[in-house]
Design goal:
Layout (H helix, E strand, L loop, with lengths): L1 E4 L4 H14 L4 E5 L10 E4 L5 H10 L4 E4 L5 H6 L1 H20 L5 E3 L2 E2 L23 H20 L2 E3 L1 E3 L1 E3 L12 H12 L1 E4 L7 E5 H13 L11 E2 L3 E3 L1 H9 L6 E4 L4 H6 L8 H7 L7 H19 L1
Parallel strand pairs: 1-2, 1-4, 2-3, 4-5, 5-7, 6-8, 8-12, 9-11, 10-14
Antiparallel strand pairs: 11-13
Bound molecules: (3R)-3-hydroxy-L-norvaline.
Length: 314
């Protein structure tokens, strides 16, 4: 069976739904602190991922063979709660890797992030192998996690696979505490109020991706033959890059009266430390990755889905 840890989160909810489509709902167990916003259609277990004993007994009881570990405190929140952020991101990863070392779990997916790159990293088409000096607690924990995954692979043959997600845009679950969350909030505000106050400056270009591409990449990587995986820290992954101003312009094509204002806050410094675009040639070469959603396709899908979602709630 497959366990999705953090199944109620921004990536977790879409991943759970896709895994059920592929393997059937009897093969997938969703676990998180709180129930998901949308019905996922498989067994849900309320779990604090930092509770080692509960996690271990769940894995044994349900005969879990694969774990998708999506639990994390994201960049903006972790800057405010560094110790909790480190513990949540690292201790849970250690536990899952240890269960694999002991032969309980056969395969692990764990996402890293373009947040591992810092101000000294080349900002355009950031290569797979380059200067990695993260400037945030979240980035530090993600890079340490990548090196931990590589250590368990080299020393204990643990089959753990990882991609460095860019900012992800989705609608099924509200993201929490990310610096790229502006690119999700803007759609809710555009549909509800016709205006948005951006916490990032208009020209802040960041690597981004629509959720369907992120899920496709995750499944493709997990289904690739082990011998094709040449990166056991984490693969660069990329789709599109855009600025808040470019995103606002794309939204205005659908909602001409939409207006945006800019009031950068502490998250501007985080965004300024990250690359503008990513070179993901290794992922495309090793396991055939390619993205489907460009900016316009993402914007029309998000506006359609959120308009439908908000109509249901009125
Ligand atoms: C964040 N959404 O903003 C995450 C992601 C690259 C950004 O890691 O923290």
């Amino acid at each position: 069976k497959i366990l999705v840890l953090g199944a109620s989160g921004q990536v977790g909810i879409d991943l759970t739904i896709r895994l059920i489509e592929i393997f059937g709902n009897h093969r997938v167990i969703a676990a998180d602190l709180k129930e998901p916003e949308e019905e996922v259609g498989c067994k849900f277990v309320q779990l604090d991922a930092t509770d080692k004993d509960s996690l271990l007994s769940l894995v044994k009881r349900e005969k879990i063979s694969e774990v998708y570990h999506l639990v994390a405190m994201l960049s903006a929140t972790a800057e405010k709660f560094p110790i909790k952020g480190w513990q949540l991101n690292m201790d849970t990863l250690f536990q899952v890797l240890e269960m694999a070392r002991q032969g309980l779990v056969k395969k692990i997916f764990w996402p890293s992030s373009i947040a591992v790159f810092g101000p000294t990293t080349p900002k355009e088409h950031t290569p797979q192998h380059t200067i990695v000096e993260p400037a945030t607690i979240y980035g530090i924990s993600k890079y340490a996690g990548e090196l931990l995954c590589q250590w368990y692979y080299i020393n204990h043959k643990v089959d753990v696979r990882s991609v460095r997600y860019p900012g992800i845009v989705s609608w099924k679950a509200e993201p929490g505490g990310g610096t790229t969350d502006y690119a999700v909030e803007i759609f809710y505000q555009a549909v509800k109020d016709g205006k948005y106050e951006s916490f990032l400056n208009p020209d802040t270009e960041l690597p981004m991706m629509y959720i369907d591409d992120a899920i496709n990449a995750t499944i493709t990587l997990m289904q690739a033959p082990a011998h094709s995986i040449n990166i056991r820290t984490s693969y660069n992954l990329s789709a599109i890059s855009f600025t808040p101003a470019q995103l606002a312009r794309a939204i205005k094509k659908h909602l001409p009266s939409f207006t945006i204002e800019y009031k950068p806050d502490y998250r501007q410094q985080i965004a300024d430390s990250w690359p503008k675009s990513i070179d993901d040639a290794e992922a495309r070469k090793d396991w055939g990755w390619s993205h489907q959603f460009d900016l316009d396709k993402m914007v029309s899908e998000m506006l359609f889905q959120i308009t439908k979602k908000l109509k249901k709630t009125v």
